[in-house]
Known about the structure:
The chain is of the alpha/beta class.
Amino acid sequence: xxxxxxxxxxxxxxxxxxxxxxxxxxxxxxxxSKRAVMNELLIEDIRAAHTSSKxxxxxxxxxxxxxxxxxxxxxxxxxxxxxxxxxxxxxxxKFVTTTVRxxxxxxxxxxxxxxxxxxxxxxxxxDITHVPxxxxxxxxxxxxxxxxxxIVGWSMATTLHTQVVLDALDMALWQRRPAGVIHHSDxxxxxxxxxxxxxxxxxxxxxxxxxVGDAYDNAMCESFFATLECELLDRRRFRTQAxxxxxxxxxxxxxxxxxxxxxxxxxxxxxxxERSALDPDALKSAAVLAxxxxxxxxxxxxxxxSVPAILDGHSTRQPRERAGRDGKMxxxxxxxxxxxxxxxxxxxxx
Length: 350
């Protein structure tokens, strides 16, 4: 009625809708309820968190952002407010396999789909993907630390050669200086090459490779590429390879490593998770992610809590309970029995 009062008289609309004019005017003069006011304030916070994530966060990560600010709100309410505000996260598309073998000798599978690590630099996973541009493909090789999901090494090139994976490995070695780390990948020609095997032997890296044509054997790295495609590549078109390089660099070093929240590590970013591992007291400043019964602003005075809550076992999933792409790897069929080359000592790998 308020939207059409310029076109029709109030009395005519009230008579047509079966309501009294006095009831309509009483409703129009009535102030907004406390919950409606609180919803408007929450929508502002939700919109700010959504914008800060470059439009990628959905309900769970938006709720984690609000919880970190001390705003205790249920997940269903966040979903309803995001829907009313026209906000939504991005969803993933299916990934494609780009592994090509050249007859090189494979390394044994030292991981066997167990992508867990108790501390940094115990297990790295690596893979290559392509970034489409109007000028052709740009190839991206990454090295990811299984402990924190942090990208510790990456490299980009216009051709798919062995040097791109060597550069990514060298960057990871320069940043982390590991001792006896396992480097797990697929059986692509770049990873089975003699040059890559020699570099691993020189640096004291233990190479490991999954089976052919099975994405679950390198599920954690496939999960990162799915995130990259969903949150960056599917949402932008690059005219030049230089433009794609800048965008990928900003995504990895400006957003993914320092800021993007991961459900498998308690909705912390990789950098924050590693910092909390070095300083356990840092977790005391994290917010509760579990559903809460207390409504924001229930006392009518404030919409925040004065003391931040602590993460507990009910509010976050432990890293060792999750593996691969959203844990789907755990439901996959078991691998076949170990092959003869899988039992070969790593020091005999060329």
